[in-house]
TrEMBL record:
GO terms for molecular function: electron transfer activity; FMN binding; NAD(P)H dehydrogenase (quinone) activity. It comes from the Bacteria. Coiled coil: none annotated. Gene3D superfamilies: 3.40.50.360. The keyword Oxidoreductase applies. Residues 2-172 form the Flavodoxin-like fold domain. Keywords: Oxidoreductase. The keyword Chaperone does not apply. This is Glutathione-regulated potassium-efflux system ancillary protein KefF.
Length: 184
């Protein structure tokens, strides 16, 4: 089964993330979505509930918009508290071992704004901490997926953004199915 940790502080106003989640729920009937801003508006994470959710699933998707070249604040707090000693790491901290972690980000700007040269893509460097955290918790880090160029501020209509988000959701659906098949 798949768990999505949704971290969007303005989800109701979102076009891309809301479309991605809505479409993916239609395609993945065993998908559990935990919208952590909605669950914890006071940022007081229920660590036991979040750890229990992680234990129920083999694939964890982090779905969020890129904020200032990083994850939203609550997702960082979630990592800090949920990936705890003797749960995610330490001598008995193997509870996440071999679970897959996939980051799915929405980015307002076009992809070319993040390409330094043929060998260097800034988005990969922005996710080094997520990758290192997954590896430290003995998880299998899956190459992230990005949805670029989705800002209404740079002239895209809601319909254009929804179309891109639906394609992203379909890509995620295919990836989820492939990852689940590779486990069998």
């Amino acid at each position: 089964m798949t768990l999505m940790i949704l971290s969007h502080p303005n989800f109701e106003q979102s076009i891309a993330n809301k479309t991605i989640v809505t479409e993916l729920i239609k395609q993945q009937h065993d998908l559990e979505v935990r919208h952590i801003y909605e669950l914890y508006p006071d940022y007081q994470i229920d660590i036991a509930a979040e750890q229990a959710a992680l234990l129920r699933h083999d694939l964890i998707i982090l779905q969020y918009p890129m904020y200032w070249f990083n994850m939203p604040a609550i997702l960082k707090i979630w990592f800090d508290q949920v990936f705890s000693y003797q749960f995610a790491y330490g001598s008995k901290g193997d509870k996440l071992k071999h679970k897959k972690l996939l980051a799915s980000l929405t980015v307002g700007q076009p992809e070319q704004n993040f390409i330094v040269d043929q060998k260097n893509h800034l988005m990969q460097s922005f996710l080094k901490a997520v990758q290192a955290s997954a590896q430290y918790a003995q998880m299998d880090y899956v190459d992230p997926v990005f949805l670029y160029d989705i800002s209404t501020a740079i002239g895209h209509s809601e319909i254009q953004i929804q179309a891109k988000a639906k394609a992203h959701s379909q890509h995620l659906n295919t990836l989820i199915n492939t990852l689940h098949q590779s486990k069998k």
